[in-house]
Fold each of these.
Amino acid sequence: MSAMKLWEYVVRRLIALIPVIIGVTVIAFVLWKAIPIDPAVAYLGAKGAQKSPENIAALHAAWHLDDPLPAQYLWYMGNLVRGDLGPSFVNKDPVNIARFLPATLELTFYAILFALPVGIYLGILSAMKRNSWVDQLARVLAIVGVAVPIYWLGIMLKIFFHENLAVLGLNVLPLDGRLDPTLTPPPTVTGWYTIDSILALNLTTFVSAVLHLILPAFTLGFAQLALILRMTRSGMLEVLGQDYVRTARAKGVPEREVVFKHAFRNAMNATLTVSGLTVGTALAGDVYVESIYGIFGIGQYFLQSALADGFFDILGYLFIVTIFYVTANLVIDVLYAAVDPQVRLGGS
Amino acid sequence: MVLRSGDESAVAWSRIWERFLQDHASRISELKYTLFLFRKNRLAMLGLGLILGLVAIAFLAPELALQKPVFVNIGGSLQQRWTPSSDVLVGTSWTHPFGTDNFGVDWYSKVLYGTGVSLQVGVLVVVPASLIGTLLGLLAGFKGGLIEEIVMRITDIFLSIPSLILAIAITAVLGRSLTHVMYALIITWWPWYTRLVRGQVLSVKERQFVESAKSVGASPTRLMLRHILPNSISPVIVQASMDFGYVILTAAGLGFLGLGSPPGTAEWGVMIAEGINYLFVAPWMSAFPGLAIVIAVLGFNLLGDGLRDILDPRLRR
């Protein structure tokens, strides 16, 4: 397809996102208004400040709590557009999600980096060697993988890799945090310890950061791997039975080329579709993984806000995560359109 | 056969029954074929077996358990209390198959009691969510136009927030309790059904039998409920059976995070979380409730997978 058309498609999709994102803020706002608790009182409680009538009245005025609902919404949206997410209930003011974002993004990135290629590879292998022991094993993995709760898997891995089981020689991986407690974090450039430590040319820190990522990334990626494997396998099976694959084989195209160039390109739709969902489940899974492995990212931040009735924190988090999620899906849809000539870029 | 007086009604009923069998012969043979396919599908049977096992455990929990909870009335609602004992943090043994917790409560009994809780959550979330979602999807696909536009845009908005995250936010806002977890899950789950059913309706609507029904004067309601709905429903059944598992998993997850049942209750997620503090001294505390979740999700997943193969008209013949 022509680059021009693809470009048009991207712009059209971006415009279509605007009402969706506004809709999410409306949902978040309705949620906020549905609570019987007075946010001003909750805020003073969370901050340990005195809940005197004057303090409450001051917050009511500052947050426009006594205005009519549409005016309140517009006030919140006005702040949002200016990048102000409001005062934080659980941290120092104001709500600052950017500070916690890198840890989460790093974890999520490595989880998907592990799950996607391994899932695709196993899916292809399993479809190629249908009904062999590899295939049987892969199918069991696909079925069990989605049934294992991520929070339970994380805990079980911690038990297995603890020094109590040193006999198994598995006590080599750290179980908590992002770095060895004796090390200082590298100077912040991206906030990703694996990148920042390289930029600081500090090998020890880099190794420690990588070791600390292995278990959390595996935990987070496991279910995604199973899902990707499952979709790739079924996509490949459907495609491998088709005529053009047989033709390609008959005319002597090397098997490797048949699989990757002819079959997988067409089977990739299913894989791509599920990858979009994967981003959503991974962002949600971060909430569990971060709390189990003691990583302070946005997932943990969100959980603490949720447990402390942190209204502005919850709204801000919902907003940011949604933007990430819809953007990831947009990127995937564009890839989809770029890769698959059959996708029509028409209106509906 | 000698008929005593009063058996005439029995005869009449048997006639009606025969008539019914005749009238619906094709449907009955279809159903028999479905059952035949189901019995042949070993994984689906395994899934069904696991589910029936769990249902049996849920009902028999009071008989099978070694220890029973006491229910106390706190502020008008019944709450579970498990009597402590001196057998604190004892490992698995014949007296305590799944060990005990830091209060000496028998963990096996609590896992058994948790089965009923999880299955109930599954039913109480999936049934309303699939009903709401199906009806809205049916309406949107059938009516089209403005109604479709509104319903589908709302669906899109809900689907653009990762479901667990929306569920956490809703529970946090409503206040922590299992009931609120269920409300939150219903609110996050219905849009999937709407999207699914609408897509299905759009394709079924174009099929010939709908056209013929329309041409002989079937009313829109009849068209929608008697012709389109039954032919759009099989993916809903598949999805619902899988969702039982995922809902159980997610609800337990919210319990794990501390948003659901209060600590001390026999709920799998809460129990896993309680095990965290004793991870390395009493690993069984987290292990067994988690295993129970795996079995439940696996059961519903296998059943759903099998149903998909069985109900898919392309794979059927």
Amino acid sequence: MITDSLIVSAILFSIGVLGVLTRRNAIILFMCVELMLNAVNLSFVAFSRLHGVTGQVFVIMVMTIAAAEAALGLAIVISVFRHFESLNLADLKLLRG
Amino acid sequence: MSLPLLALVQAAAAAAHPLNASVAEWVWLLPLLPLLGAIINGALSLVPNSSDVRKFRAITSLVGPGVLLASFVLSTMIFLAMRDVPHIEAPFIRNFATWMPVGALQVNWGVQLDQLSILMCLVITGVGTLIHLFSVAYMGDDASYARYFAYLNLFVTSMLILVLGSSFPVLFVGWEGVGLCSYLLIGFWFTEEANVEAGKKAFVVNRIGDFGFLIAMFLIWTTVGTLDFTSANAALSALPAGSAVLLPIALFLFLGCAGKSAQIPLYIWLPDAMAGPTPVSALIHAATMVTAGVYLIARTSPIFAGAPSASLVVALVGALTAFWAATIALRQWDIKRVLAYSTVSQLGYMFIGVGVGAYSAGVFHLVTHAFFKALLFLGAGSVIHALHVAYHHTHRETQDAQDLRNMGGLRRFMPATATAMGLATLAIVGIPPLAGFFSKDEILSSAYSRAHGSPLANATLLGIPGSAVLFVVYGLGMLTALLTGIYMTRMLLLTFFGDNRTGKNEQSALHEAPALMTAPVLVLAVLTVVGGWLNLPEIASSLGKVDRLTEWLEPVTGASARVLAGTTNVSSNTELILILAAVGAGLLGIIIAYVTSRTPVLSKDESPADEGFAGVLANAYGVDRVLDNIVVKPVSALASTVLSRGVDRTLDDGIEGSAVSLVRIAGRVGARLQSGDVGAYAWLVAAGALVILGSLALS
């Protein structure tokens, strides 16, 4: 039962990582990060069966932070789009050394 | 005796010292009073010239000699307190703070009061007060009046630290302090390059001596683990007889003394040091600082007593220096240079004294020499001052006011100075009953008597038996006595007798120096006459108590003197012959000088340059030029070509260039990494995470 949950969690996490590494669209990137967070949440919940409720408390914590991050992140994405008229991260290279 | 036990014994001795709670508790004030003067005068010297300049000068005139007088009064009180206590065997030591607590090395800021240090304090502050008073008149018109007194007071502070310090490092502080003040005062008129050069020369030559002193300190520390005089002397004299380490310690210490006290081969700085104001020459380069080496040997006498070969070296170098410098003094024309070489020569006598283990005789000559040489320098200062005024009067300032050829017949114009300098000349030549006679005679007879049956006579120096060395020392001492008679009489005759060569128009402006300058000279003249009573020889017992100074110094140097004295005693007949010989040599010198002085002398501008051997002597054997060629020039060539152009530039450019390219490459690599591409960053983060995870999994 836990093993299954952990496998699902690992698959979800890997999808998220691959998305972050390969995609260039800021929104997609954002969604992939959320995916990774939720994969971790899943494994937390799964482990809480073994080690008590601490894991679930963590999940609540992660979801709160993720909500805040999403609010900030989307605001930034909107500003970026207004400025550059593009969400392709390959175009955003003003900070290169 | 182990060291901690030794310390305990000393602590017990200190606790019950007869000087406790007496005026001696105030001994720390001795160096602090002149320091206060130095601070006040130093502050005044920073005040820009203004309308109040007269008021500030008055303060300086009051503070400068005033602090010295206070110090002298305190020294006298301490001396009287010490004299009233019948037996002071152990020195009176007070530690005020810890200076260097490094592991087992414990150096304290401590003063050590004993018979030797209070004697030195009396000479320094007493003669110092007179010279400070003289300076008030001599330097009165100088623009840097306050600066002069600040340096002079600072010098006295350092000198008192030197003689009162209770350990080698504290003495070294004073040792370097007097060196610094000497440098500052030689180059006092720093607008003339020659003066600055002379100051630098004195400083650099003294460095060589200081190197020896430092090495000696290191050796003492590694051998006995302490640097306090009392415990180091006790531990070093407790070493088994003939310990190999005593010889290098003594020789390196003597190298330090040779630098400070201008002995061969480090005497070359002293004649040039005459570039400073004349009272400075009297105080620093005749009466006090240059005698620091003699003091140091007396202070560490157990070391030299334990190394008879080193003592032979001291005596031999002293004798050679005495003779060498006396020959140069025969043909100097600058009055101050005559006196400078004479000082070097007399310092040589002192080293003969302490070298043959007659420590009280060496210190005795130190004291009497301080009297008559300070007098001679101050008198020379009065003469130079008078000639300056005269040449200033006729606007011929370019004339040399220090050249003997421009003097002559001055006794008609300056009778008091002439009388005093005449007395001092007789004293330095060794005519009885003046001070120099007794001290010089004691040194020469000590050298003679130790040539038989003493540890010194039995020791060898490079295979030469010590008795032979001592006879050479005695012979050179006698020859020097003859030469002293010649050159001092020559100087006196050229200055004060014969016709005046200053110039027709100048004669009306030649006058005796002001009272403030003649008064110290006359006080010194009295001391020059009666100074011999400090330590009358056995043979003069009808004149008063004999060997007063030797008895006074007995707790400090008595034991070491007895170690080197050996068994033989000179009979009073022999002593009488020795005395007659020494006095005869001096008288013969006077007669020779008198006879040769009949050849008339022209003024400096009209005189031809000295030729032949006279020229060699006038050039001081060309030692300076030789040293310039074999030391100074190669060193500066090495510095400018090899070190500056070679090493510095290649190395600098190399290091600089490679450093620049290194930074540039690192910058490029770093800039590549900062591509601004978020995707690339993400890959790097992932790769990093993988590396961490992998290393965790593997461990």
Amino acid sequence: MKIIIIGDGKVGYSLAESLSKENNDVTIIDKDPEALKKASEFLDVMCIRGNGVSTSILMEAGVSEADLLIAATTSDEMNMVCCLTGKKLGADHTIARIRDPEYASELSILKRDLGLDMVINPEQACANEIARVLSYPSAVNVESFSKGRVELVEIKVTAEMSIAGVKLQDIAGKVSSSVLIGAVQRADEVIIPKGNFQIMADDQIYVIGKPSNIFDFCVRIGIYAQKVRNVMIIGGGRIAYYLAGYLEEIGMKSKIIEIDRDRCLELSELLPSTLIINGDGSDETVLYSESLNDMDAFVSLTGRDEENLMAALFAKQNGVHKVVAKINRVNYTSVIKTLGIDSVLSPKQITANGIVRFVRGLKNALENPVETLYKIVDGRAEAVEFIANQSTKFLNVPLKDLRLVQGVLVAAIVRKNEIIIPHGKDVIKQGDSVILIVKDKQFSDFNDIIAPGGND
Amino acid sequence: MNFRMILRTLGIVLCGEAALMIPSLIVSLIYGQEDTRAFLISISILLVVSFILYRVKPVTTEIYARDGFAIVSLSWFLVAFFGALPFVLSGAIPSFIDAYFETVSGFTTTGATILKEVESLPRGILFWRSFTHWVGGMGVLVLMLAVLPSVKATSIHIMQAESPGPSPGKLVPKIRETGKILYLIYFAMTAILIACLLLAGMPLYDSLVHAFGTAGTGGFSMRNTSIGAYNNVAIEVIITIFMFIFGVNFSLYYQSLKGNIRTFLRDGEFRLYLGIVLASILLITLDLNANVFNTIGESLRHASFQVSTIISTTGYSTTDFNLWPSFSKAILVLLMFIGASAGSTAGGIKCIRIVLLFKVIRREILKIVHPRSVHVVKVNGKAVDEEMLSGVTVFFFAFIMIFASAVLLVSLDGKDMVTNFTAVATSIGNVGPGLGIVGPMGNFSSYSLLSKIVFSFCMITGRLEIFPVLLLFAPSFWKRVNI
């Protein structure tokens, strides 16, 4: 697919990285030659220096043949104009990053009148993600499939958990047979486990299943799943604003600590039912006086990564059950993983995931569409949802007879309202939505999961 | 430095070279001459060496700019080394240094030869000699990038180090696709040229050999007196036009294929290239007329062929321009330095650098008049960044410096100044013939071994545009940990 990305910032770069690796022809437009330098050196993309609003630059980038134009500059207005111009010049689809909450409420009108196919708001997407992580107290990350009917939860195994040292084939008997462990990260290795795989302490496991079953699983393996009631948020930026709104919807109480007085006033006007504290969130005394120890969850959302991580560690030390930190730079993930913070989220990755999912959707609009796609384990494995249709070649064949490509696991089958955690004798029927866990590979066609020479 | 990855990549390149010898092997089988054995042995040696190199397991496959540069310059030295094997093994060129010179001259599309007599050589060997032009013209590694299935994003450094011009870029977002497009255009134009030559009455084998030489702007012929041997105006006109065409930046062809024909006229480099060619033809024709040839038509025919062959750095000849008046010879020597366009198969300094150098000079003058003035140098309506401008001036100095040192070394042989001067100019500019002993009807065989090594070095330096090769001589470049 031919994709033009305007704006080589955080989101632009990370999008270009994922999209070019998926074999799309990516062209980046940016005014700043320094930003483009990195992209041209490390990514297989074409870089054009110039203003993305300019017609001649867009023409140079081949907008008339482009399948998709993504405007991700820092300015909402510029993004809208870019998309509008791009569409007029012949781009098939357009995606704009629009982050100002003022526009967010008029999104549907904007989408229709500007002909936008998708609007991304990194802060809103990030807030949404945090809200979902908070509603799962002990899991690390939660992703949902089939409109929330199936969830994928990331859990870190500790020595006290009853599953530590148990082989997968014995889990059904010991704990629960209604969930499946789809991927395991051990030290630096990603494993798609088989029946004789033994779970060890410190493994990061990805559990897939019905939300209620996963909850049940969590309780059984000894994670005390208590519903979060009180959330403390440090930093009153846009994510905090959206997050407070979401938390209110799901019945959690939140307080926001923000250092800037004017912003506090603004927030208290926007969020009447949220407690706004004017203070320095990195100051211990402020945190203690706001009873940090009694909080169920702690979310650090300031503009500085280091501060967020330190504050999160401090909260963890003070016994807060669920700690989430936002970071902008994802450069040292391997170090951050070892810190013990429950969730570290980056808006740019969440945004990029969203768009990559949309792009895959576009690509496969006709056959075997990917419904959902999540990158798990730092993007080293993926959870993909396909819908089986007439063109699927292995309908009604028991799974044990299918010869799948190495590194592919059928994790769940959703049939109407029934969720099947597949065993050898289960079959895929037409209309089923099938969730796969895939390692080191990318599939754009459902039929590709069968090893060459397997069932046809 | 990722030495393991460099060795492994060299293994892949040598395996590619073995594949490139197959057409020549087939030719030698068709003609049933004694060179078949030489190709079979060379291919086996290449496969064994490439297999050993490919077995090196890199710790990480990541390559950075310095590794890309190292891969390109080492590949060129090695490819020429192994490419010389068929010449030695078949006995066509018994001395290895001579054979190495000939192969370097082939791959760098120079076309300078140490052979006094080529017509008696086996057909397969002659085919290989010209085929190296075709591959070397667009680049051995660009071909690998176009063909290999897994091309990493950082391979851009390899392409940039091998492609000529101050800022080689991609035509399309993917490196691999860019390589493919370049080779497709190249292949198509070569095919058209072969068809034209066949129509003009050249035999098939001769057409192939001369088409390779023209497309790569190389200049090896299978006739002792080059194109002049055919004495056929149609052939000369076709080759004159195609030499010019292969000296144009290939991205312009890609743009016109996409429908932007006007980019040709707007392109500053193309305008300069065309202007220089037309002016030189005019001046030389006037100079030759009544002096060397009797009719204006005859003068124009030889002047245009010689101008096109020298500026495109091909090096075919239809007449011995050694005997021309000095004004015409002086123009031709200047053209050797200028060369054709960036992003083409030609050598030399390249017109775009000349354009930029003139603009820099103009800016310096304006700066003296208005010391506080600020000027942005623009080419084709786009601002050129300062880094590139300083790169061009440094390149120019490095070019002249290597030229001067090579003249000094070559002078040890005691030949006359004009011969030495033009021999070095023609090697570093990848042209082929010079003046004096190395003129169009002469050759390089009388030079000493040392000089031949110096010439080979100059040819590779000129083809890779100096810095990839100079890098090999920097001690810090070889340290495992660069500090």
Amino acid sequence: MRFSLLRLSVLLALGLASPPTSAWSQTADASQNREALDPVVLGSVPTASAQEGEEKKPDAQDGQGEDKPKQDAKDGEGKDGDKEAKDKEAKDKDDKEAKDKSKKDNDKKDKEEEPLEPLVLTELPGPVLFLKGERVIVRPGKVLENAQVLVRGGRIQNVGTDLVAPEGARVIEGKVICAAFLDPWSTLGVDVQSLRDGSGDASLQPMDAIDLYEPSWRRERALRAGVTLVESHVAINSGFSGTGVMLSTNPDLHDPEQAVVLKRTAMWARLERAGDVISRIEEVDNLVGKLKSGEDYLQSWSSYETKYTEWQKEITELQEKLEKDFKKAQKDREKDKEKADKDGKEFKEKRYKEPKPPRKPRFDADKEALGHVARGEMPLVVMATRAAVLRNLIEATSDFPALRLIIAGGDQAMHVAPLLVARNIPVMVWPADPLADGEAPVETSGTLSLAGDLARAGVSVLIGSGEGGSSDALPLYAALAVGYGMPEDHALAAITTRVAQAFDAQSEVGQVRRGRRAELLVMDGDPLSVGTQVQFVVSGGEVVVEPKE
Amino acid sequence: MFITALTLILAASLAPAQASNQGAYILQVDHLHTGNGPVLSPGKVLVRDGVIAEVGDAVSAKDVPILELHGHLSAGMIALGDTTILGQEGADATRFVLPEAESRFGFDPHTPALRRLCEQGITTVVLTPPSDALVAGRGLVAKTGSGRMLAKGQAMHVAFDAGMFEDTPDPTPGGMSGGGFFQFFGPNGSVTPNGYKSSYPGAARLLEDAVQTKGSQMSQLVGGGIRAWLRSDSRAETSRALAFAMRHKVQGTIEAGARVGELATQIQASGLGVALTVFRETNPIHATRSAVELAKAGVPFGFCLEARDRNAATLRLSAALCRRAGLSASNAWKALTFGAAQAVGLDGEIGTIAPGKDADFVLWDGDPNELTSRIERVWVDGKQVVQNTQTSQGGKQ
């Protein structure tokens, strides 16, 4: 709570916070509800929050300390228990509200027009860029003609049609300016051995697997193609692969702390590892069972904390009472003792009974992570292709109303399209490995025609390079999807705004809007046109790709 | 009834004059991409008996129905080097040199895989045996819409890549398969006593033997008696294949990836065509740059369909990646159509919209060069074989 309020106050101080309808305050709300999981780590960019480093630091520590209350409790002291439990209660309550709210937000997400209020970021370090475009694609479907974008301190400071270049700014002119592409499903930047691992679990985090010293040409090609950020995770052959990160493709970044801009994107899971039908049913049961155990685990902690508080209260009251009655009790004891002596009886001390502390649940990192997923605090991306498995999964997870399910792969997803629409489950479509061996489960496997079909059926589609494609071809995949009947705006959104939204980063990336990270492209044509050359790439507020001469 | 009778009478009386117009029609479209020539807007094409009779902006013929369509009409695309459609039918795991093999005997013209290629606008596909052999016999070229095989397309498949060593059979009882120094069957079914075929020089030696055996199938490769398909992968293999072709004046196609562009001028001099593999190399940048160099040197080339049939769109993806490397739009389109036809010696039959060529067309809702353009209809040999119903309601603005 303290964290989020402070965060909000930082935003307020910078003039970033705005009336409750805007995305910024929503972000603040979201972080309130999810303080422990607040995923946005503003990597290498000198940002507003970085500027407020002194204030931010203790917060960040709090944020990381998700298991801190447990540690305290473990020590048995539990002095903070009271406060923590209250926070937890409040959090639970907030969670519920958040769910309702996010549902509403989802409903109106496309229609809502956010007011543009002034943004003051004058004193921030980093280059000042002034981009002028004949067309600025603010987001798919919203285009400003002859508009300008001002970038300062790693952020988009302003977007408009009548902006004037500040003195000393680098002016870049181009035909089309749009937000850089985001690959929601990539294999870039992580150690190959860890990537293919099959022994992962829910609590796995890829930070230690990040390898930015691998041959840099893959990342560089992605960057040149306009894909500045990719989602990578490891242990892709495991039932649960743990959480993913979003990292920059800038090949000059070698420090994971700098390259990773979002430390938690989603939990990844994989079904259909088993070869036969019965085992595949069992896999879904296992997944659901694990979610349930995670939910119960968090429940057991919160009930433990409630009980612990009650116990502490009881103890304190008892202690107070004992202290208050001490003199009287002493007198009584002396009296009793005298009496016993007189009667020649043996003096018996009054037994003092203290209530026992409640039993502490055992710490389990996997269950904890799963619990957060079950509560919808981060999405769960499940890789599955068969219609029967998808149906089973969707039906079996209906007991978790807060769960934010995303299907990855989904070759036969068209058979369950109505279910996907009803439950608002997006599908991440990928091109199959052109050289892949082995039988594909279905004919349509791995073609982007799936993207077109799902989009027409009303399913929200994301496009990723997946395990077989490559990130640098991402805009080409989106273009192909249009060729298969996907609306052009949806296809562009499938590699920009919808990706940001899926990973709770919509307030950070995916659009050309003030306050967002400056991840921008300057191109000589339409973003999805084959002949278009990406001339300039701005990532983290710096020009990282210049036109080839 | 009366009208029918009248029509019959009319038809009977006009029969001699109209015979050639039976099954004839004119397609009129907003934009007609001839391929090797201009884009006609609008354009008309007269099709007679599955063959293009006339192309222009003012084509007309008596009593020939005109079909007016909106969109862009282009020639059908040509996929080179598909190894999956023939599948195991094209493989012979027992003989290392088998020039007598003919893939057409193992070809199923009704395989749904062809249909799927057709839906992607690929009207002609070159099928190569998925061979582990040094000489895998004759491949074939087929029309995707009908399964019709083109007689001229049966090239002799010769391997120069390491793939042929992978599953070479071991005929010794209880022996291991998978290469190694064992004995193999030699040319003409004879058993060669040692295992020198699992090395490049050994394979080359065997190949020279085969080519120089007078009167054999292989000897017809010399001087271009029959066309060859020379399969290579790495730069060194491509060099060997090229050297072989120049030594024996072989005509045909080199299947090559990665850095074939470095050999562009020599290949141009040899008169060979190139079937380019873009995705085989881990880093496709070499292959895409090669496309630019081949185009510059004037070498005819097309793209291999490296994907399985279900992923036919990778053909266009190959072209798109090459454009990023600097290949011009017209050269990229050429590689998908006319260049590919040239590379396999079928430029007289297919690849452009020109009189005398097969009536293989694709109707797009936009520029055929764009991946975002949708395929609405496909004709093969004058017959409409694909009509996508969903495409009319568009997502395009």
